[in-house]
Amino acid sequence: MATVLFSTHVYADPLQKSEDIVKFFAGTIDHGAARGICVGTEDECKSKTGQKEKPPEKTGLDMLINFSLDSSELDAKARSELDEFAKALKDDRLSKLSFVVEGYTDASGSATYNEGLSQRRAQSVTAFLESNGIEATRIKAVGLGEANPRNPDPYDPVNRRVEMRIKAQ
Q1: What is the pTM of this model?
Q2: 53: nearest Cα among 43, 61, 63
Q3: Taking the CB of the first residue and of the last residue of the chain, which one, N or C, has fewer CB atoms within 10 A?
Q4: Judging by beta carbons within 10 Å of its beta carbon (0-12, 13-18, 19+), is residue 107 exposed, middle or buried?
Q5: CATH classification number, 18-28+38-166, choose in 3.40.50.300, 3.30.1330.60, 3.55.50.30, 2.40.280.10
Q6: pLDDT tens readout for residues 83-130
């Protein structure tokens, strides 16, 4: 799975351009790949068809938007990144896709507080995208608290983030 970590520093240009985002997510769409039936174990069927081990399916660019401690406010860097993401979502090649916006926190604060903060972070991103013309039905905000830290150090600022992924249909 591709990973792009965004720091909280302000830059003039976003790290991801809308066309790069479109190309990444458009490449995850299955346009009716051929399917077949094989009777036997998975290994037997692979040897009969000559299939190689399939790499894990990409579901997200792991486009990360980081936040300051105890904040759900989008800084200039985050808004710049999200402007590009909104442009990408308006592209015809992505018009049929829906996305999940997952909010996370570091380990500062209680689990209950962090779940609420992570939800507010996800909602600040979805509100920004909606204000830029993305239909609310295409984006869902989910707060996951301290789950799935980016860095094993539970207090590392990189764990205070929002990630966007294709919504499983």
Answers
A1: 0.73
A2: 43
A3: C
A4: middle
A5: 3.30.1330.60
A6: 999 999 999 999 889 999 999 999 999 999 999 999 999 999 999 999
